[in-house]
Each structure stands twice: as structure tokens, then as C-alpha cells.
Amino acid sequence: KAGVTQTPRYLIKTRGQQVTLSCSPISGHRSVSWYQQTPGQGLQFLFEYFSETQRNKGNFPGRFSGRQFSNSRSEMNVSTLELGDSALYLCASSARTGSDTQYFGPGTRLTVL
Amino acid sequence: AQRVTQPEKLLSVFKGAPVELKCNYSYSGSPELFWYVQYSRQRLQLLLRHISRESIKGFTADLNKGETSFHLKKPFAQEEDSAMYYCALSGRTGNQFYFGTGTSLTVIP
């Protein structure tokens, strides 16, 4: 099976702009979770989508949003970018929700100037 | 509040020596505990989870509910074990995972 794919792999944006990141899960997986990884904070949970519904949400401002499509592909959007949003954004998919093993993508490196 | 603590950012051991990576957690309820590993230039991947009670690549981890710990152990470290290790917990509803900040393990030949 093909693994989790994320596009784009690298992005450079300026403050105030918005950005959309995409994640394609492993075929058959219905749960997609998003994480922000930074050197200082490590991996922080953003949100999880399962069958097109947001199941869980981490402690991030409303500028961070996401959605999931009927084919389980997911997008994450960050509006009004801030310098502190510079991070590696990881997507993970799993077959089920509820403490299921997660399979991670390679990440999208976002740099905000 | 849910929290995972990995007290060691860096850990170096000699090849053949025992290794223990520490993980402590706080969670109101019964969490699922996991260890994930990231080798150089590879993706984050699952190493083991406590409910499966498996030994993967010689690593084991015992959940100690009294001490709220889930330390990762291997009796004889190998060079290929050099990687970043993350302890993680999840509640039983949904896939909301809490990760520790990771321990970078270096095995010295």
C-alpha cells in the first residue's frame, strides 16, 4: 500500500497570508489527524477527522481549521499566518478512530517570513 | 491535564549496553500508551504499544500505573537503534494523541 502523502513538502509564506496543506491517507483509512511539530513544543495535536467529521480538536486558535472529503483526503488551513506558525505539519492516518495506530506522512515544512 | 514527559532530551550508550528511555504520563482515565520512533530521514513510525505486549526490535515497555510510567527498554543496544524516540498516549475516545518531546538516542560503536 502507498503510504500517507502530503503536499506540498515545503512552503514559504509571509505574515498575514493564508495557507492550505493537503494530506492523502493510506487507502482504506478513514481517520486523519494533524500535528504541529516545532523544536520547542514537540508534536502537538491539532485535530482529527473521521468520516468527514471533526472528532477531536487540540488547543489551537481558530485560525487553524481543517476538513475531510468523502475520499478521506484532508486539508488543513491556516489563516492570517504568524511567525510562530513556522513548523513541520504532520498528517497521520489510521483505519479507525479510538487509539488506533497512526501512520505518519513526511510532513509539510512551513516557513513564515 | 494530559501530559507526557520524557526527561532526557539526549541519551548516549555504548553498543551492547542496556538502554532505558524514560516516559512518565499524567492522564485522568485509562490511557493507551505508545512508543514511536523516527530514524534519520525517515517518517515517524510506531515502535510498540502497550496493549499488544509485543517485543519489537528487542525493545519492550511495561506500563506501571502506580508510577504512571511507560519506560522503553532494550538489554543490548545496537547502532541501528540510534534514532529519535517519542512516547505518546491516547485516550480511548478518538485519536487525540499527546506526545512527549522526544529523546534522541545515540548508540556509540
Annotation keywords:
heterodimer; A: 113 residues; mainly beta; seven-stranded mixed β-sheet; four-stranded antiparallel β-sheet; 11 strands; globular; B: 109 residues; six-stranded mixed β-sheet; three-stranded antiparallel β-sheet
Write structural notes for this entry.
The complex is a heterodimer of chains A (113) and B (109). Helices cover 0% and strands 53% of the residues of chain A. Chain A contains no helices and eleven strands. In chain A, the strands form two sheets. In chain A, strands 2, 4, 5, 6, 9, 10 and 11 form a seven-stranded mixed sheet that branches. The radius of gyration of chain A is 13 Å and the shape is globular. The model of chain A has no long low-confidence stretch (mean pLDDT 93). Chain B is mainly β. In chain B, strands 2, 5, 6, 9, 10 and 11 form a six-stranded mixed sheet that branches. A three-stranded antiparallel sheet of chain B has the order 3-8-7, with no helix packed on it. The interface between A and B is medium-sized, with 28 and 22 residues.
Strand coverage percent of chain A: over 45%
From the helix content, strand content and strand pairing of chain B, which structural class follows? Answer: mainly beta
Percent of residues of chain B in beta strands?
A: over 45%
Task: Give Rg of chain B in angstroms.
Answer: 13 Å
Shape, per Cα inertia axes of chain B:
globular
The global form of chain A is globular
> Which regions of chain B have little confidence, pLDDT < 50, spanning 5+ residues?
none
Helix content range of the residues of chain A, please? under 10%
Instruction: Give me the Rg of chain A, rounded.
Output: 13 Å
Largest interface: A-B, 28 and 22 residues
**What's the order of the H and E elements of chain B?**
EEEEEEEEEEE
**What is the subunit organization of this protein?**
heterodimer
Estimate the helix proportion of chain B, in percent: under 10%
- One letter per element, helices H and strands E, the order of chain A comes to EEEEEEEEEEE
Structural class, from secondary structure content of chain A? mainly beta
How many alpha or pi helices of chain B? 0
Number of helices of chain A: 0
The beta-strand count of chain B equals 11
